[in-house]
Amino acid sequence: MYLLHLIAIPHWLTSEASLTVATWGLVVATFILYLDSRARGNQQEERWKRENQLRTEEAKPVGIVELGKRQGSPLLIALCYNLGKHPFVIDKITISIVNGVRRTNDLVGPHVVLPGTFVPVPIDCKDLLLGRTGYNDASVVFQLKGATGLIDTAPAMFNLYPDTTGGYDWDLNISAHRLPGIVVQFPRDIPPEIPETR
């Protein structure tokens, strides 16, 4: 019986039916390979998109601003820290009084902040108080320029008020801090040996 099957194999391989089956098998196999290739291509494209988005997010500047004060000086020292993996440039500083004056300054010279470092930027707030009395809530926002665009830091809030000599002074005791039970922060004390700009 097996011998009859073995003898029939060459005849079947050369018949038209076997060629038709083989052709259709080849068509089906090609179609399956095409679909598989297309699915793998789509997966690869999605992976590349995700990797590009991650690289773009990772390259964005990550900075925070802390306020400091030098003893005997009314200048506000804004310390900009780089918490990211890439350097960035401090492009602009916006200082504003809540519901009042707003001033945006382009910085002179590049203020490049390397990862894990900070740059102190002195700010004179005298012109923000023109004609104002009492306590004024104010904020400082840095615009940071990185490889993938611009980003603004969270506002660093402070309280600005005129002093008895016709100048001004400031502290971190903003309106929200004057509520009962709130612990008020103090500005970072900046020793004289730290340079104001780099």
Radius of gyration: 34 Å
Question: What is the molecular shape?
Answer: rod-shaped
What assembly state would you assign to the polypeptide chains in this entry?
Answer: single chain
Portion of residues in beta strands equals: 25-35%
Please indicate the count of domains: 2
CATH fold name of the largest domain, please? Immunoglobulin-like
Task: Please describe the structure with a list of short key phrases separated by commas or semicolons.
4-stranded mixed sheet, 2 helices, 11 strands
Structural commentary:
- The chain is an alpha+beta fold.
- The protein contains 2 helices and 11 strands, in the order H-H-E-E-E-E-E-E-E-E-E-E-E.
- It has 2 domains: 2-58; 63-183, Sandwich (Immunoglobulin-like), CATH 2.60.40.
- It has helices at 2-14, 16-59; strands at 63-69, 76-82, 88-97, 102-106, 112-113, 118-123, 136-146, 149-152, 156-162, 168-171, 188-189.
- The strands form 2 sheets. Strands 3, 4, 5, 7, 8, 9 and 10 form a 7-stranded antiparallel beta sheet that branches.
- It is rod-shaped, with a radius of gyration of 34 Å.
- The model has no long low-confidence stretch (mean pLDDT 80).
